[in-house]
Task: structure prediction
Amino acid sequence: MAIDRKGRGRGFASMDPRKQKEIASKGGRAAHEQGTAHEWSSEEARQAGRKGGAASRQRISAD
Result:
């Protein structure tokens, strides 16, 4: 299955989506092993959800 890509065909964005996912997954695992990965608390997740919902409502009402 050929995928048409624009640009020079270089870098992460031009890679096969499966390869991108594999590389990103390795980075996520490494960050958790090192203890540098961000882990959401329930309060942080709640605040982010409110913020996203508010932004979504503003876009809908602007239309």
User: Anything to note?
Assistant: Residues 52 and 58 are 10 Å apart (CA to CA).
